[in-house]
Design a protein that fits this description.
The protein is of the alpha/beta class. The strands form two sheets. Strands 4-5-3-6-7-8 form a six-stranded mixed sheet, with helices on both faces. It has a two-stranded antiparallel ribbon with strand order 1-2. Helix 6 packs across helix 14. The longest helix is centred in the first third of the chain and has 25 residues. The radius of gyration is 29 Å and the shape is globular. It starts with a helix and ends in a 5-residue tail after the last helix.
Length: 365
């Protein structure tokens, strides 16, 4: 391409300047004739060079695509920027069922210029049903993932609905998987009990082997490894192995793309990582947890997560749901055992995921 352009420019210069020089020599006394000839030759050169340069519309489209891409990347980076308003409820409004009910917990995205430009929104049941219509969603991990699954289903089915009563009962059967089909919108949600990184890795590999891919995968781990293995270096190694297999899946090529296996639905596979919560050591309910899940150990695990480069912000494939930030800012008023937090925290994580999904899938509501 560059060779063709160079040749075209060289030919144009020859066509333009040689005749002009000759004309200038012979027509120096007839300036009007000279400039008319020069204008004619210049126009001819422009016509000659036109095929070698992109059109204005192509240039504008190219610049626009870069701007849109940069905006999407910026919004993904800002989607976890939320603030909390936690305040005591009036005494006459406390029903005494739980200390968590003593506090009113509200959250929203920060009001910075960058965040406001992204137009993040809390989605209602109708919006979520439209966004996730026909989707296969897998949520895998430990108890933190289980709470995320509960919040997502509460948003889809209605947190106070009769259906959610049976969902809670089935979902919280100890250390078990759970699956539900929301027939009204053709959405399948699976919770997979996978407390260790190796469990998550096996799950990812199974999708590759079967050549069947969920539309959305939300995964997270760390707490079980911290308690039962208590080796941050090993945790990091397991995450790197997981990252290598996840990178084979993201993005999944659509059926129309050359050489792609594609997902069942023909859409890209979107993957998220549930960050570890802040642990309040003094509130942990066993001496073993207090010893093995100390602040020092927690920070070692958090460092290993970053060094694994599994997160998008570190150049990896997974978009972070920053539960660490949410729990830190919600504070001790939002937890009873220093590890599991109020439903508002997991509701926030679900809304962050949904807004990131809107950005990633180029959809609007």
């Amino acid at each position: 391409m560059l060779g063709a352009i160079h040749f075209g420019v060289l030919a144009a210069c020859f066509v333009l300047f040689v005749p002009m020089a000759m004309a200038g020599w012979h027509l120096s006394r007839h300036k009007m004739l000279f400039f008319s000839g020069a204008l004619f030759i210049s126009l001819a050169v422009c016509v000659h060079l036109t095929p070698y340069f992109p059109s204005v519309s192509d240039i504008v489209a190219s610049v626009s695509s870069v701007v849109v891409y940069d905006h999407r990347v910026s919004c993904i980076n800002e989607v976890n920027q939320i603030v909390w308003d936690v305040k005591p409820r009036p005494r006459n409004s406390n029903n005494g069922s739980s200390k968590l009910d003593y506090f009113e917990k509200n959250w929203d995205w920060v009001r910075s210029r960058k965040v406001l430009s992204c137009e993040f929104q809390k989605l209602d049941k109708f919006d979520v049903s439209e966004l996730l219509n026909g989707s296969w969603i897998v949520i895998a991990g430990d108890s933190q993932a289980r709470f995320v699954a509960l919040s997502l289903l509460g948003l889809v089915l209605g947190s106070g609905s009769e259906a959610m009563g049976s969902v809670r009962e089935e979902l919280f059967k100890r250390h078990s998987d759970y699956s539900i089909m929301v027939k009204e919108i053709g959405m399948k949600v699976e919770f997979v009990w996978a407390p260790y990184e190796k469990d998550l890795d096996d799950l990812v590999v199974s999708y590759k082997k079967k050549n069947k891919y969920p539309d959305v995968v939300i995964m997270g781990s760390g707490l079980w490894h911290m308690l039962h293995v208590n080796n941050a270096s090993d945790f990091g190694s397991q995450l790197k192995e997981l990252r290598s297999h996840v990178e084979l899946l993201v993005p999944v090529r659509t059926k129309g793309e050359e050489g792609g296996g594609g997902s069942v639905s023909g859409r890209s596979m979107h993957m998220f990582w549930i960050g570890m919560p802040v642990l309040i050591n003094g509130m942990l309910n066993t001496d073993e947890k207090k010893e093995k899940m100390s602040d020092t150990v927690w920070h070692e695990y958090d460092r290993s997560l970053g060094e694994s480069k599994i997160l998008r912000q570190m150049g990896g494939p997974l978009v972070l749901l920053d539960v660490q930030s949410f729990t830190w800012n919600c504070g001790p008023q939002c937890t009873l055992d220093g590890m599991h937090y109020d439903s508002a925290v997991y509701d926030a994580a679900v809304h962050v995921m949904l807004n990131a999904l809107l950005i990633e899938s180029h959809q609007t509501l």
